[in-house]
């Protein structure tokens, strides 16, 4: 990355032109040259219609190897089930990477490869994991944290239909989240519990409706990078009744992976369910969404005084630009980290987690200000006993 380059000379390649990838392209296009690749020509056409200055290429990373010497940063925004395989190919380009694919595999497996290439790979760089990790990493340097509880969800503003939900991410990735065992930490012990468990009713003072929250496996790197924190959990927020509907599908075999003999072994219940939910969770009446997050941390300050820190984030669908809130919150966090990399504020090599970035106050405040400047509301309250 040449220091003589101006901001407009920088080139950022985004892999994936879906809802999140296009949001990243939209916010970065004002500051850098944006290139975008995707295997879906229709997705790229939608981007070109809205952002004519973004250069689009049809294909995979392998198809676009000719770009590797032309870009300064790569952002990966592909479905999680292909994230690891794609990231392995991207690393061979020896270009710094920001990843929001939320792959099910442990990205630490790529650490040595990235270090040999001399590049940083910032993984899990969205809203949660992502911004949530940044917040916890920041406060971990300011207090002795005893407990972290993260509540987060993307919901339609209007409660319509049987699901009262709109999918921003790949439905396959969302369903996988409801099937994957959940890792939490209790009393200093790493536990594995069933997904959708420990259902609770949640009242947030910044919205009118009651919500439900259930455990999901979203702590990811926090479980091993900050394992001195005795209690950590993450819960997904939904409108009441959602978890029971998912459980009913699971108990009835709709998520089974064995092919159906009635369909000559050509399709499994899970594949069929995913296709049906893809349509149900894409109801345009529910597109106007909102993103809600509360991070509740308890502990003591460095003088031993009991302290409670609560960070609330709220964002709404962007009516002017027809952009989903969850795409904004996920994509703009990644875009903020792109700017940090372009300005050489992250000098680590290998796999970098968002909490590592949050541990540096200047970087934490940059990301927070970046999100707030895009209209995302963030408020932090500190109470001392």
CATH superfamily of the largest domain: Dihydrodipicolinate Reductase, domain 2
Largest sheet: 7 strands, parallel
**What's the CATH topology label of the largest domain?**
Dihydrodipicolinate Reductase, domain 2
Structural class, by secondary structure, is alpha/beta
Shape: globular
Lay out the secondary structure.
Blueprint lengths: L10 E5 L3 H10 L4 E6 L2 H10 L4 E4 L14 E4 L3 H12 L5 E3 L11 H7 L2 E3 L8 H10 L3 E13 L14 H9 L2 E5 L2 E5 L6 E3 L8 E5 L6 H4 L5 E8 L3 H10 L17 H12 L8 E12 L5 E11 L8 H18 L7 E3 L1 H5 L2 H13 L3 E8 L1
Parallel strand pairs: 1-2, 1-4, 2-3, 4-5, 5-6, 6-15, 7-12
Antiparallel strand pairs: 7-13, 8-9, 10-11, 11-12, 13-14, 14-16
Would you mind describing this structure in some detail?
There is one protein chain. With 385 residues, the protein is an alpha/beta fold. It has 2 domains: 7-126 and 326-376, Rossmann fold (3-Layer(aba) Sandwich), CATH 3.40.50.720; 131-324, Dihydrodipicolinate Reductase, domain 2, CATH 3.30.360.10. It is 31% helix and 25% strand. It has a 7-stranded parallel beta sheet with strand order 3-2-1-4-5-6-15, with helices on both faces. A 7-stranded mixed beta sheet has the order 10-11-12-7-13-14-16, covered by helices on one side. A two-stranded antiparallel ribbon has the order 8-9. α1 packs across α10 (325-342) and α10 packs across α12 (361-373). The protein has helices at residues 19-28, 41-50, 80-91, 111-117, 131-140, 171-179, 222-225, 242-251, 269-280, 325-342, 354-358, 361-373, and strands spanning 11-15, 33-38, 55-58, 73-76, 97-99, 120-122, 144-156, 182-186, 189-193, 200-202, 211-215, 231-238, 289-300, 306-316, 350-352, 377-384. The radius of gyration is 21 Å and the shape is globular.
């Amino acid at each position: 990355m040449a220091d003589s380059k101006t901001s407009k000379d920088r080139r950022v390649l985004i892999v994936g032109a879906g809802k999140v990838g296009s949001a990243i392209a939209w916010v970065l296009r004002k500051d850098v040259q944006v290139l975008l690749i995707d295997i879906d020509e229709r997705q790229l056409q939608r981007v070109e219609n809205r952002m004519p200055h973004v250069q689009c290429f049809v294909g995979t990373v392998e198809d676009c190897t000719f770009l590797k010497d032309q870009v300064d940063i790569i952002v990966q925004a592909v479905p999680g089930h292909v994230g690891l395989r794609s990231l392995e190919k991207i690393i061979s380009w020896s270009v710094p990477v920001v990843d929001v694919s939320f792959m099910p595999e442990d990205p630490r497996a790529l650490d040595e490869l990235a270090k040999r290439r001399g590049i940083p790979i910032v993984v899990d760089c969205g809203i949660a994991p992502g911004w949530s990790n940044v917040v916890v990493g920041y406060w971990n340097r300011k207090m002795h944290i005893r407990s972290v509880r993260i509540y987060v969800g993307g919901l339609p503003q209007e409660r319509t239909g049987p699901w009262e939900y709109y999918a921003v991410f790949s439905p396959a990735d969302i369903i996988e989240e409801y099937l994957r065992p959940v890792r939490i930490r209790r009393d200093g012990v790493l536990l594995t519990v069933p997904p959708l468990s420990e259902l609770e009713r949640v009242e947030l003072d910044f919205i009118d409706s009651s919500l439900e929250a259930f455990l999901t496996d979203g702590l990811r790197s926090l479980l091993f990078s900050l394992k001195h924190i005795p209690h950590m959990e993450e819960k997904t927020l939904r409108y009441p009744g959602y978890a029971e509907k998912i459980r009913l599908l699971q108990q009835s075999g709709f998520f089974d992976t064995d092919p159906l003999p009635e369909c000559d072994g050509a399709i499994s219940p899970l594949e069929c369910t995913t296709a049906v939910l893809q349509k149900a969770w894409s109801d345009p009446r529910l597109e106007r969404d909102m993103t809600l997050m509360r991070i509740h941390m308890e502990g003591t300050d460095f003088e031993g005084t009991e302290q409670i820190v609560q960070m609330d984030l709220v964002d709404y669908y962007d009516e002017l630009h027809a952009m989903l809130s969850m795409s904004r919150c996920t994509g703009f966090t990644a875009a903020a980290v792109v700017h940090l990399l372009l300005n050489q504020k992250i000098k680590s090599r290998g796999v970098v987690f968002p909490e590592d970035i949050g541990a540096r106050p200047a970087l934490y405040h940059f990301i927070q200000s970046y999100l707030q400047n895009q209209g995302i509301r963030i408020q932090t309250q500190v109470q001392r006993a």
